[in-house]
Write a structure and sequence with these properties.
Blueprint: E1 2-7, E2 11-13, E3 18-26, E4 31-39, E5 46-51, E6 57-59, E7 67-73, E8 79-86, E9 95-103, E10 108-110, E11 114-119
Parallel strand pairs: 2-11
Antiparallel strand pairs: 1-3, 3-8, 4-5, 4-9, 5-6, 7-8, 9-10, 9-11
């Protein structure tokens, strides 16, 4: 089992910045892919940024050049944290942001979500 806990969502003005954090615990050795999705009101959940199984990163076109995903793993491999640095935020970035992890057996895990609201 993998547990994901997000933090960092807030209300910010357009042009501002936020950093989201996702702390993963449990069987983190089994995590193959980890990253962020978002869901705006009335829209489907969409990929924002992820670390792929090879360690490379993928971003949706709408956030390229503005968002940066990074990660940090504790020395004992007991905890892994993925960050999403969001700069130049726009009202269309308003959504609930969800941390996601997929393990080597294909099981998906989701965090509880953190609200990001960007005012114009």
């Amino acid at each position: 089992q993998v547990q994901l806990v997000e933090s960092g969502g807030d209300l910010v003005r357009a042009g501002g910045s936020l950093r989201l954090s996702c702390a993963a615990s449990g069987s983190i050795f089994s995590i193959k892919v980890m990253g962020w999705y978002r869901q705006a009101p009335g829209k489907q959940r969409e990929l924002v940024a992820i670390f792929t199984s090879g360690g490379s990163t993928t971003y949706t076109d709408a956030v390229k050049g503005r968002f940066t995903i990074s990660r940090d793993t504790s020395r004992d491999n007991a905890k892994s944290t993925v960050y999403l640095q969001m700069n130049a935020l726009q009202p269309e970035d308003t959504a609930v942001y969800y941390c996601n992890a997929q393990n080597i057996w294909g099981k998906m895990y989701w965090g509880q979500g953190t609200q990001v609201t960007v005012s114009s």
